[in-house]
Amino acid sequence: MEFPEVVRQRYATKRFDGRTLPQGKIDELLELIRLAPSALNLQPWKIKVISDPEMKATLAPATGNPEMTTTASHILVFCADTEMETLVGKTMDGMVKAGVPGQIMTHVRELCEQMVLCLDTQQRKEWSTHQVFLALGNAVNGAKALGFDSCPVTEFKPEEFRRILNVPAHLFPVVICPLGYGAQPANPKLRFPLEDILL
Amino acid sequence: MEFPEVVRQRYATKRFDGRTLPQGKIDELLELIRLAPSALNLQPWKIKVISDPEMKATLAPATGNPEMTTTASHILVFCADTEMETLVGKTMDGMVKAGVPGQIMTHVRELCEQMVLCLDTQQRKEWSTHQVFLALGNAVNGAKALGFDSCPVTEFKPEEFRRILNVPAHLFPVVICPLGYGAQPANPKLRFPLEDILL
User: Does A24 lie at the interface with B, CB-CB under 8 angstroms?
Assistant: First the structure.
């Protein structure tokens, strides 16, 4: 499907029909998420993939729409990573292995110091969350492109998710994305007219 | 182009060849951005489209890569909108016009109160910035799908942009996106292996 058609057809699916997505589709989607852009290429995200029905039922009360959570095939829990030193180190290692010239490496290192290594935990969480939403964009468009549905959800209890899923302290669950096959057709897309979003 | 191919081919283009994009392409891209998802469908973004060479030259020193800024055909300046009362009002008006049932309207109104209307300006800026990064995802993937290139840029001086572009106080420039035709081929994509981004 051409990307403009993906964008037109994608919709926030509030109820799924309970069918299970093939693992191959999940793998393809994770690859599209993995390739998402991020500032300084730091990829500051960790994703927990939930497919176990008991776990979905356990998480459901910590979400704003328990029925969506339990009827979804899979749930992606996107966490913002604040362990910047590790991310910078890994990104630089990857550049060394790829033979990136030293001058560029030095510049990237300086930018990392100026833009992320100097941040406190709350600022790191915010910075990483911005990047997570780029990855989320690939998830929701990717799902539609691969023939299924999704719904980005920020209405959930992050600290409940942390407790249930045993999420380490340096990671922050910031958005979840139930996946599956929609149980209802999409409603018409409501958007502001173009002139309203231009400055 | 199929979406997975878009994702594989898209890259952060650091230098453009100076050619101007046809207005029709910009219009198509803006439509893909307009249709981006956002929490509560609040669409809390305003976009300034810059194409004037003199304005690009004026903005260039306020960006981390002046050459990218001046060689780009257009620059999208994404602003996070913090005027939530207006956004909620417009979103609700759109739902009324579309005949959305009153029960759903009431629920959405409650969610708006719980999730955004209660936030202070800094929190609103952060909340809206998350959504802006979803729109940005459509911009960078959309550009590649439409046959041109882009680069999401957070290394710029927002307050300089505010001054030069006369951005109102309730809007915050949070990311810019130069657009054009890349002057160099893409470098190989460097990403962490899948196991490193799974929790």
Answer: no
